[in-house]
Specification:
six-stranded parallel sheet; 5 helices; two-stranded antiparallel sheet; alpha/beta; 211 residues
């Protein structure tokens, strides 16, 4: 049975940016493959919002800012354990731009995250300190929307955290699995799916919507 997308449903497109696509500094394998599918899905939705990773060049999550550390190692920060990343999505660089292959002219909002040098931010709803809110929940609540459908990059980090935080905020949430791709570092993908299931996030394939 095909899922009917209602006019009050929202498509949340997470971090489809050049640094997360093949050739980018933190490329997600197959990240470019989901762009045409996202474009097709977006035509089903009246409401579309984007999230965009947006870091200063000296962001605390960059391995380059920690002497002797390599990407994918961890450090302890005031808000907990932080994975260190290659420099990525530095504001006003091509790597930070949303893919020009996205054909979603009716997108209504871009939420930027990770712009605070001292706090990383995977989720579109709140930063990694779990206190600083982005304002996305407030926007969606004012719009009086129904279910959120989440797509984008990467399944096991920004997509997963966004989905879990959306569920915690009282939204009904579905991840469209084949419209995401994962980093899958040290079992992170399996853990993310388990955490999403525990949070009440549903999981479908694009064919369930497109028929």
């Amino acid at each position: 049975m095909t899922i009917e997308i209602k006019p009050t449903d929202v498509l949340v497109i997470v971090d489809v940016q050049y640094d997360f696509l093949p050739g980018g500094s933190l490329a997600v394998a197959g990240g470019d493959e989901i762009v045409p599918l996202i474009n097709t899905l977006a035509r089903k939705f009246t409401n579309v919002v984007f999230t965009q990773d947006w870091h200063p060049a000296d962001h605390i999550s960059f391995a380059s800012q920690h002497y002797g550390k390599e990407p994918f190692e961890t450090v302890e920060l005031p808000y907990g354990t932080q994975v260190l990343w290659p420099d990525h999505c530095v504001w006003n660089t091509r790597g930070a731009e949303l893919s020009h292959d996205l054909d979603v002219p009716h997108g209504q909002l871009i939420i930027r995250k990770g712009y605070n040098r001292l706090i990383d931010s995977y989720s579109g709803f709140q930063e990694a300190d779990r206190q600083t809110l982005t304002g996305l929940a407030g926007y969606l609540n004012e719009r009086d929307v129904d279910r959120l459908y989440i797509v984008g990059l990467a399944t096991d980090f920004c997509v997963g955290w966004t989905a879990i935080d959306a569920a915690a905020g009282g939204f009904d949430v579905t991840v469209i699995e084949d419209a995401t791709r994962a980093i899958d570092n040290a079992g992170s993908l399996a853990k993310a799916w388990a955490d999403m299931a525990e949070a009440g996030v549903e999981r479908v394939m694009s064919k369930d919507i497109l028929g």
